[in-house]
Structure formats: C-alpha cells, structure tokens
C-alpha cells in the first residue's frame, strides 16, 4: 500500500504572473492533475495573455490599492500552507508580508527569475525570510546571497513537439522575438539582420515583439532558426520552446555558468554573441545540412530537462521540504 502524500492535504499558493508565467502555468497544471491543491495567481495585467487561476486587480490609487491588497491577503491567508512567490512580488510591503507568513508558520518558497535580483536589499530580505530559494538558471548564482536549488524553466514540451510543421516551400526564416529588447540585445540583432538581408535575399530575417503567447508560437512554427538573447549569458524560455519545436537555437552562453548545472555540456544551442552573430548566422545559412542534428538534439534536451512533469517533481520536493 502506497504511503499517502501529506502535501495533498495542504494548499499551495503560487504568485505572481510578471515573469515566467508560461512555465509556472505548465508545472502547476501537472500538479493539479495529480491531485495537489495548487493555485496560480496573477496580479494586474496578464503578460502575453498567459492564463492564471485567479486574476487580482486592485485600485490604481496607492493607498486604496494597499488597503485592498492587505485585506485580500488576510482573507486568503488561512487557506494556504505553502506560499511560493516569483519575481519577488508579494501583496504589500514585502518585509511585513513575508514576516507575517513566517510568524504564522507558513512555508515560504522564493523563485528568482532574472532582473529582479538587482534590487539588492529586497533580494537579501527574501533570501533571509524564505525557507527555500530557487533559481531558474545559473546566471543568477553570483547575484543572490544564497540558493537551495536551480530548477530550469518548465514547458509543456510534448504539446510543443506537435507544433513543428513547416511548409517545404517557405523561405528559410530567422526569427528573433524579444520579451525585452534591451535585455535580449535586439539592437545588435537588428544591425546584423539589416546587413545580411542584402546578402541573402532568399532568407527572411524577422523580428517580432509584443505578441501574445499563442501568436508567438505560430511565428516560431514558421521559423528555422530562433535567436534568443545575446547579453545575459544564458538561454530563456523562448529557447526552450524553440528547441522543443525542433528549431535551431542561437544564444550567448557564458561557459562559466556550466559548472552550476549538470547539463551545461549537453546544451544543443549555438553559442553566439554580439561580435560573432553575423559570422555564425552566415555559417548556418550556408550549411543547412547541419539543421537536422541540432533539431533532434534540441528536442531531446527539452524533453530531458524542461518537461513540465519533471519540473513539477522538483517543485514537489521543495514544497514538501522536511516532510519527506
């Protein structure tokens, strides 16, 4: 007889939706299907039209908004045992919000996802008060006071694999779809595209921004090569989706980060940067016979390291903590 999981008798709060919504939605769906009481909350505008279980909207006036958030937090406080915050977003004044949870014996999980760690004081307080600190990638290791585990981005990989069809008579297409053009190095991509567009009229060089998630996936279906970011030193959720869909992916990878994960040497991403992008793109355009190898390796990599079922298992371990 299998042992009953005590976590299934508890409720898990996950918020909010400013960053990583696609991954959060996918792994929380896995846990819901397995019988865990987990709710994904969004606050304010929904980035890229991503779904949430509960969307909270508060007043635009600061004082009224604070009161509304304060009241709502205490309304749902007894409901949840585990509180998982992403992007360092909470309901109100973060030291007080976290301290209340801590005093009441709630488990606090914090996932750092990117640029939010630049707020050093805020980061330090989250690290101090959280029971578990998670990073989505090794590019954040040197920016935080502590962390317990690196859990990669989650995606519904199997669903993405079914969306790989492209008509054979279409042009070779190179796509760049930044969520934040400054962070992703879009200015450099634009310059390279402008130059190569004259040399390779048979290739379509495309930059799209501000699309909802479904529209973005439709653009990726039509692409052959997807350029992620050129500045951060690691790859993002877009690269994961592109690999799962069998696309050739390019990004800047800082090899110093490989030591912090067990799959650094397995990455099937073409390592490029702002100085070598033109040369690397031309190499790909002139050697399309290499595409098949990158496509196969990328799809395998996405299944192995980013599938939402595997990421859900990692978060279960974090949510259980000392109960295991």
Automatic annotation (TrEMBL):
<keyword id="KW-0812">Transmembrane</keyword>
<protein>
    <recommendedName>
        <fullName>Glycosyltransferase</fullName>
    </recommendedName>
</protein>
<keyword id="KW-1133">Transmembrane helix</keyword>
<feature type="transmembrane region" description="Helical">
    <location>
        <begin position="85"/>
        <end position="104"/>
    </location>
</feature>
<keyword id="KW-0472">Membrane</keyword>
<feature type="transmembrane region" description="Helical">
    <location>
        <begin position="12"/>
        <end position="31"/>
    </location>
</feature>
